[in-house]
């Protein structure tokens, strides 16, 4: 494309300015030539609807003109596509009869070719311009954060003209043999096992973590890494995770929009490559009860257009003040919106994981590490900074803030939000989630804090305070405000839950209740003030979340019922049949002595009978619980009923089924067991 067209792409990326039609034509024809040269026949706008997955509708480049085929892709096709996506969830923002939703090219994130299709990363909006996807609020939050962060960064360096967010997403996943996967209707339909007794050995010995990668897996990893490189995704790390057959990979971090799009793409690529290896990748947060679940740790930092990481402690007192300003603004934001941030990672899937085995607890806390905590304590202990006579001393104190070199090995894996040297790691994000759901909330909250930071500093300097004193005053205020969320101890301990509640933090105890966090007055203010979401967009999102929660749980409950009635009970009865024939045969030959000889068998028969009865009763009760919940018309209340009545009933059903698994002849058990699914 021409220099001018190229510049307009860069300009759109840097300033968010619109690309005009003429330029769009030129860019489109450049992209078409590039794609066709590489064997592409189709193009698609790839967008991220509220379902959490990605969506695509392929169109051929070929079109027919005057009876002749020709390859076509014009500017309007690049900039906008109308997928007639009437069945995507929109939470009442768009009537089905008014099906028009538009996907629009996002020039922030690179286009790529996958399986002969030119994929154009896109935003998805309604006819009236409301956000129907995960990308739009994320881009808006980036804008809000950028301008607020720039205003603060300029206090230290007037040459700063913009701030971006860098993100590195660590992706955890399980691998299961495809044939075994196909023999488990629950894995196929729900991506998690709804029954299954724990394996005698799983992760007790921690012998899988960082162990040698099984060769079958290593071959798969190399293969998908190669595919990822070809698509421009720079994968950097790979290792075994704690649970058996659980693994992790992470790319080199990049700007937020690219990082998220590439993570969504990576999940698609991994699944495609796995097929060639007769493997299935499971991205579900908790596919197996009783062992570790999977997260998508979101490493998050801010960087100026001059190349400075604003969360990197410096070597001079003034650099440290800059670092402390941003650090204090982040932790204060996390404290103000602790519950909302935890709610932003809530989903049915993640609810099985959070607070469980080695997973972040369901209450927010920030881990800073020993070095930083000491610095914060020193700042908080300072004399009242408003005392004029103290002025000189306080400025000396600014100078006396020691060089901060946080120990990178100082890691606390029990914190949902941990500082790791030059970035925060939001560890509660779920492995199957679109990380944008968490980042737009985090960005908005930090933007709000940074705005407040700047205006409070301005107020101090307007009163005549020197800049360094003003900064220190506000840093101190913010650290004070953030105190409840700062926690250096063991987040997994039950004592922390109590302590957290005492500090006024709210733990998440129920997912549909947590969704309501978005509707709280302070959240609505946050989203509307920062321009991230309008009130109707917020409501639409909550509705979609509730509906998705109910539908997913409904599917799980159905699958559980089917498995119990069609797999578990028949297998148990078949084994009873063997037992009873054996007992009968014994009686025929040995007479009354059979009671002694078949004592164990008869006991087993009775136990199985009791579990079968309980199971069929509980399965019936589960159907009733679902029906009752379905009669509730209010979606919030229906979701609540599912999260309590239906879920509790599911646990009862599962317990009988898992007990039967321990009693029934292994040869008759129709489903692959945990020990078979979890070890290559
Ligand atoms: P861990 O030791 O926490 O498992 P990994 O090496 O698996 O760490 O992943 C760390 C991720 O954080 C990588 O994606 C890395 O690129 C990313 N990262 C590193 N520095 C930054 C930064 N300043 N901002 C955002 N992400 C970063
Ligand atoms: Mg890691």
Bound ligands, each once: adenosine-5'-diphosphate, magnesium ion
CATH superfamily of the largest domain: Glutamine synthetase/guanido kinase, catalytic domain
**CATH fold title of the largest domain:** Creatine Kinase, Chain A, domain 2
Radius of gyration: 28 Å
Distance between the termini: 50 Å
- Coarse shape: globular
Largest sheet: 7 strands, mixed
Number of helices: 23
Helix share, percent: 40-55%
Please tell me the overall pLDDT: 90
CATH 2nd-level architecture of the largest domain? 2-Layer Sandwich
Structural class call reads alpha+beta
**Tally of individual domains:** 3
Strand content: 5-15%
Number of strands: 19
Quaternary state of this entry equals single chain
**What are the low-pLDDT stretches, counting only 5+ consecutive residues below 50?**
384-395
Verbal overview:
There is one protein chain. The protein is α+β, with helices and mostly antiparallel strands. It has 3 domains: 3-132, Glutamine synthetase, N-terminal domain (Ubiquitin-like (UB roll)), CATH 3.10.20; 141-533, Glutamine synthetase/guanido kinase, catalytic domain (Creatine Kinase, Chain A, domain 2); 549-677, Four Helix Bundle (Hemerythrin (Met), subunit A) (Up-down Bundle), CATH 1.20.120.1560. It is 51% helix and 12% strand. It contains 23 helices and 19 strands. The strands form 4 sheets. Strands 1, 2, 3, 6, 7, 8 and 9 form a 7-stranded mixed beta sheet that branches. The two termini are 50 Å apart. The structure holds adenosine-5'-diphosphate (ADP) and magnesium ion. Residues 166-168, 170, 237, 250-253, 299-301, 309, 422-423 line the site of adenosine-5'-diphosphate.
